[in-house]
């Protein structure tokens, strides 16, 4: 009898465990371990990694409910319940942080989200293979440049002697250090993000487009549809499920944000528009060592994020057949 | 075969113009930096507007950067973090992907739940930092490797790649008495080169460009990766900590005006030398991108 026969048997047994007795379950577990112990050996480091570095910090969130004293450790520090959470909600910066986080994501959603879709649709209409390949290679490039360098470039180009100011001056405008202007932070952040990721993010839409059946295009052409109408009536509806899923992710992340780019770009002058929850957590936590308070802020933000993701998914499920779960 | 209407032609022209503009916009900042990095710093400082070619020609910036011990230390450290870190990444990812691609595994669902929860919820920055600190990894090179040993998305992408290997091949190997280590290394991996290449690229790029973990976990300069040295030059504008090469070129260049000119030049040269390795690397793996990204995003 080959191993596979036994495994098939095992599978059947595993499916039926709900009705079998406890002894039977134990037997299945034993048999499974006998056949698969090497797989479990492989799983050991991976599961250990998850438990230590993903679940460890979740356990570590208990720091948000105490007044952390490094000498006492989390467990012996005085328990303060929801004090830090209340403090955050009444924090003078609370409104500003929530607004900034939300607005920065809204800018991303309005300008950043459609950009790769437009690029993919546009690339799809290109007949010349070589041109298409060249455009793709070049637009992917910024994705591979490090965030530190990208932000360095932004600083160089936005400085008062920088290229952007040269262009402004060419049209008779006045030279100003653009990164010191809080009102320009959102556009600079958003459009540099599009610059960096539009090519890369278009890949997924191009892949979805390549799965569209050519017959649909043929019949549309026979019906007299021009290029634009084929794009509008065939391509876009065909990739709508992909768009929906990515939109769920985008909306689900509305109150989250990556702190790395913000930290590299902002300065106290632009805090009023640039400081978001994540950068505040970093500043209060790792620069001012206010561990308990910033952990509480981080916890609120991840819970709110999870709720957002859940709602976006529920909405998508109600309106269409596409959803994450 | 193609009957082009007027509308189609206009569409085509507009489309090509749009794409050319996007391509130019993606390319030009990079060209600008390359031109500027070999330009004469005094001329460059006086120049306004677009650069179409280098202004004059000098390799002074490159010489200063290659003489600078901090940049070179950063470079060596980054190579270390990339080689060791990515090796660890690949081992963990391949093991995890193999486990999750098994069909007859009693505890598979439990493992999957453990993994999935972490994709939606995490402890956040502060508890993570404190954990790594409490594990005694602060200010050690391990802090940049062990806590980042695995990326869940990459593991899921790789699992999907492994699942596409025909089951019959494994069955045949099993009949011949092969164990799981044999199946993984001799059956699955040789047939999953494409997905492995993509994941390798993701990890290499991530490790090469990473700076934040180094900033929060490392204290000593001789352990800093290149990106952290770059941050001082490009973002905090502080070269006072830099030794030899750069600060000598910057301060040895005479008057104040020249000093700032050289400081600017060095920004461009450091950008070039830090970015070139990755730029040379990615086009080779480009043909696998579509596969990797698509599989990962939709089947996760």
Automatic annotation (TrEMBL), chain B:
Keyword set, alphabetical order: Cell membrane, Membrane, Transmembrane, Transmembrane helix, Transport
InterPro entries: MetI-like, MetI-like_sf
Family: Belongs to the binding-protein-dependent transport system permease family.
Database matches in PROSITE patterns: ABC_TM1 (PS50928), PROKAR_LIPOPROTEIN (PS51257)
Ranges that cross the membrane: 16-38, 50-66, 78-99, 111-130
Listed GO biological process terms: transmembrane transport
Keyword Lipid biosynthesis: no
Lineage, opening ranks: Bacteria, Bacillati, Bacillota, Clostridia, Eubacteriales
Protein's UniProt keywords contain Nucleotidyltransferase: no
Domain named ABC transmembrane type-1: residues: 75-277
Pfam families given in the database record: BPD_transp_1
Name of the molecule in the record: Sugar ABC transporter permease
Location of the protein in the cell: Cell membrane
